[in-house]
Specification:
Blueprint lengths: L2 H31 L3 H21 L14 H12 L2 H22 L1 H8 L8 H21 L5 H25 L10 H24 L4 H27 L3 H33 L1
Keywords: Cell membrane, Membrane, Transmembrane, Transmembrane helix, Transport
Membrane topology: Multi-pass membrane protein
GO molecular function: transmembrane transporter activity
Length: 277
């Protein structure tokens, strides 16, 4: 795998994961000094700043000769071809369900922080700072491991770290009458660490499958994750966020499904290599 691409993907994965984690913290700060409509005015201002920054300081780096023409029919054909690729489906599902185990807690943060942990609107950092810290630590390890540790080994270590986090979380919920910080949030940090090891590797495998359509493949991977996250936030989280045990059991199920899709991919690649041999 290209070292530069791996490093850039690592940085992108950090931002992709940190953004939904830090947003509730900022929202809590805004509610501390104003009413809820101020959150939307903040988003308007933030969007304007992003638009201006993109326009002024973010140049296009893709070579003109490598750019795809914006022809809707061709773009749709490319997207369909990528999405129907069985290997893409396995890898995108492994990445989406793996991150879904953490996003379930992010989507359930109001209930988890306010109702289960009995903290205030200004104390969301108790949950999100350890989560972001774990993600940053995992991204740092992933970057340091680039070119030194194989991708499959990093994915195995990442899933192992997340599994350990789930085991601790399950044990804590079984033994603790009332969840308390910091013990209740430690598994989130370890889970985020594991996800940060897995995500860049799977993303690189996906974009390397489609060298002429890297952007399309990456967009579809993100789309797959966003659809699952929308279902988690809009359907699943409201149903189970009132119970710490239901949260950990569901998160464990997401992790197991993600790991299952990854093992399916590994087995398929071994069969393919054996057939060619």
């Amino acid at each position: 795998m290209n070292y530069g691409v791996r490093m850039s993907t690592k940085g992108w994965s950090v931002h992709f994961s940190v953004a939904p984690a830090i947003a509730p913290v900022i929202g809590g700060w805004i509610l501390g000094w104003s009413q809820w409509p101020a959150i939307f005015w903040f988003l308007v201002l933030f969007s304007a700043v992003l638009w201006f920054a993109t326009w002024r300081v973010l140049p296009e780096t893709h070579p003109p000769e490598a750019r795809l023409p914006p022809v809707p029919s061709r773009l749709l054909r490319d997207y369909v071809g990528i999405f129907l690729n069985p290997r893409f489906q396995r890898l995108a599902a492994a990445s989406a369900f793996n991150f879904g185990a953490l996003f379930l807690y992010i989507a359930s943060a109001p209930a988890f922080v306010l109702d289960l942990l009995k903290l205030s609107e200004q104390q969301f950092a108790w949950f999100f700072v350890p989560t972001i810290g774990g993600m940053a630590a995992g991204a740092w390890v992933s970057g340091r491991s680039a070119g030194r540790v194989g991708g499959a080994r990093l994915v195995a270590l990442g899933f192992a770290a997340s599994a350990l986090a789930m085991a601790y979380n399950l044990g804590y919920n079984l033994l603790a009458d009332v969840p308390r910080v910091p013990w209740a949030v430690l598994p989130m940090s370890l889970n985020a660490f594991g996800i940060a090891l897995v995500f860049p590797v799977i993303t690189l495998v996906i974009i390397d499958m489609f060298p002429g359509h890297r952007g399309s493949a990456s967009s579809l991977q993100a789309f797959t994750s966003l659809v699952l996250n929308a279902l988690i936030a809009g359907v699943l989280s409201p149903m189970i966020s009132g119970s710490g045990m239901m949260l950990v059991l569901t998160a464990t199920a997401f992790l197991a499904v993600g790991w299952g899709f990854w093992r399916w991919e590994v087995a398929a690649m071994r069969r393919a290599v054996g057939t060619r041999g």
